[in-house]
Amino acid sequence: MGEIDKGIPQVGMRFRNVDEAWVFWVAYGGRAGFDVRKRNKFDGEVTSCRFVCSNEGLRKKGITLDHVPKRIRAETRTNCKARMTITLDRVGKNYEVTDIVLEHNHYLQLPQTSHLMASQRKISEVQAFEIEAADDSGIMPKAAHELACRQVGGPLNLGYTCVDQKNHLRSKRQRELAFGQLDCEEHITNIFWADAKMVLDYAHFGDVVTFDTTFGTNKEYRPFGVFLGLNQFRETTIFGDETCDSFTWLFETFLAAHNGKQPRTIYTDQDAAMGKAIGKVFTESYHGLCTFHIMQNVVKHLSPFK
């Protein structure tokens, strides 16, 4: 069997399973100074697998995005041919290396920076516990990361960066925020709230729902949307507290809070992003427009008769 922690890939090496071969390739990439990816071929089980350099292939050209990217990513694909291919030996019940290319067509990482590659960074369970304990104690992420580096003799031995640490904490907070979303700076961008009475009211009176947003309700100018309906006494009932994506998230969260029950009819204003999101999420509902907003637009856009 191939040795995981040392050695250079060679044709004829054997591994017990694909995971063992992948660990070997990741370790070799860390020592040689290149990041890694893999491609599998399935036939009921993995019959062959090709481990490649992360610079393998070329970025697709001519792709039109429906939005303007916040940051243009640098070109990293150089069509590098470095690879290791393993094939299943059905008789021996193991995987054999059948093809090797070790030459790269790009610069490799220095030993001082190879620990920063994505394949070489991982937060263990013990490290995750220490990160969360430091955060709960009020220690800032940068200070906690510097302390962890000192404890293991430097960042090369730590296994993760300060950015990885912040991403871990953000993911933890995202999981704890059951009906909410955070941005890259860990600010709340969307939040949904519904108490037990709202859930019960929707179960009984949620056939027809109206949804409207009121903008600029506070100094932060955050949009606030309320799902409203009428109970048996014709009293207004609240069922739960704007790009298409944010509305899609809101409507999907609304359904999740109400056990997936869709209203028969939902009335909204003429917001285009809201209408697009409703078409995606409320597939069983009739979407109607609020007559109040229609009349307001008539007064606003049509001149009076003389």
TrEMBL record:
**Mind telling me which Pfam families this protein's record contains?**
FAR1, MULE
Which InterPro entries has this protein been placed in? FAR1_DNA_bnd_dom, MULE_transposase_dom
Q: Which residues form the FAR1 domain?
A: 24-109
Question: What is this protein's name?
Answer: Uncharacterized protein
The residues forming a coiled coil are none
Q: Which residues form the MULE transposase domain?
A: 208-297
| Organism of this sequence | Aegilops tauschii subsp. strangulata
Instruction: Report the leader peptide range.
Output: none
Q: Which PANTHER family match?
A: OS01G0519700 PROTEIN (PTHR47718), PROTEIN FAR1-RELATED SEQUENCE 5-LIKE (PTHR47718:SF2)
